[in-house]
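Hi R.,

Here's the chain you asked about this morning:
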Amino acid sequence: MGHSLRMASPRAEGIKQRKGARSRWRRRLTAMGPGLVTGASDDDPSGIATYAQAGAQYHFGLLWLALISFPLMFAVQEICDRTALSTGRNLGEIVVDRFDRTWRVILGAMLVLLIGANAFNIAADLVAVGAGMHLLHAGPPALWAAVAGLSISLLVVLGSFEVVARVCKFLCLALLAYVAVLFFLHIGWADVIAGLLVPHVQATRAYVALVVAVLGTTISPYLFFWQSEHRVEQLREDPIGGKRAVPITRRPAAQAREKQRESRLDVFSGMALSQVVMFAIIVTTAVALHRSGVTVTSAAQAASALRPVAGSASATLFALGFVGAGFLAVPVLAGSASGALAGMLRQQWGYSRQPRHAAVFYGLVALGTVGGTALTTLSVNPIALLVVAALVNGLAAAPFLVLVMVISRDRDIMGPYANGRWANAFGWLTVAIMTVSALLLVVTGAT
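And the predicted structure, written out as C-alpha cells:
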C-alpha cells in the first residue's frame, strides 16, 4: 500500500500529465494533412508567378493582401473541412441530396469546366517543373515536364492513399525554401510592416487586374473540393470505420470534439503556411527585382532574375520551391473536381479506392494528369493556358462558394456543426469579395 501511495505522488502525476500532453501533440501532428496539403498546394507554380509579379511590379504595394486574405481563406477552408467531418461525404455527394435536378445539372457542367481548367493549370505547372529542373542543371525542360507528369500519374493510380498523402505532406517542406530565401537579402522590415498593414491602392487597370489575380489564385475553387475530399479520405483511414468514413456526428462526444480541434488546427496551419509563403515571395521579389524593372511572367523567370541580384543560392532555393510545389499541386488539381463529379454521379471516388472500384474517378484524374502532360509536348504557350484557367476559376469561385455556404448552414445536413455567426460572416464576406473580383475580371479584362 505504501508503494501505491508513493506512485501516486505529485511528481509521478506531473510526469504522467507531461507524457499525456506530448502524446496529444504527437497525435495532432500525425493528424495534420488535409489542411496542410491544401494550403501548400495553393502555392503552385502559377500562384508563385502571380505573387512574384506582385512584388516585382508594385514592391510592397500588394503585401497587404497576404494579411487580408488569410482570415477569408481560413474561414472558407474550415467550412469545407467541417462539412466533411460532420457528414463523411464530399461536396459532390452532398449536392445530390440537397439540390434538385436542374441545379445538379448546372453544377455538374461547372465541374466539367473546372476539370478542363485544372488540366490547363496542370500543364502549366508541369512546364514550370521542367523549367525549374532545367535551372537546376538537371536536363531539358520538356523531358522533365513529361517525366513529372507520367510519374505523378503512376503515383496516383498505382499508389495507395497513404502513399499519396505522405508524398504530398513531404512536398510541403519544399515551400520553406521561400522563407529561407529571405535570409539572403537585406530587407527594410519597417517598410515591409507598413506594406503589410497599410493598403497602398492604385486606381489603375493593371493594379486592379493583379489584385484580382492574387485573390483568384489564393481562393480557388479546386481548394474547396480538395479540402473536403482529403478529409473524407482521412476519415476512411481511421480504424473506427473499417474503410468507411465515420462522421463526427456518429462518434462519442469527447472523440468528436478532439477530432474537430485537430482538424481545425490542421486547416489553420495549412492556411498560415500558404500565406507565409505568399508573404515571403512578394517580399523577396520586391527587394530583389522591383528596382531592376523586371517583368515576371513565370516562376522560372523570377528564379532566373534573382540569380544576378540575390545570388545563385537564392535562385536555386526559389527553383527548388516551385519544383516541389508543382509536384504537390498536380494530384490535388486532378483529384479535386474529379472527386466531386464522381460523387455527384454516385460513383466511388478517391485515391484510397482501387482503380477497378472507382473507374470514373480515375478516368477523370487521368484526363487531368495525362491530358496535362500531353499538352506540355505541344507548342502551347503556358501563359495562354493559365489565362483560360484563371478565367474559369475567377468566374466559378463565387458560385461554388455560394454552394458551400448553403450546405454548411443547413442543420439537416450538418447537425450541430452547422455554421455559427462568425463562420457565416466571414464566409459570405468572401462570397461578396469573390463576386466583385469576378465582375472586375470581366469589366477590366484582367486576364
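DSSP finds 20 helices and no strands in the chain.

Let me know if you need anything else.
M.
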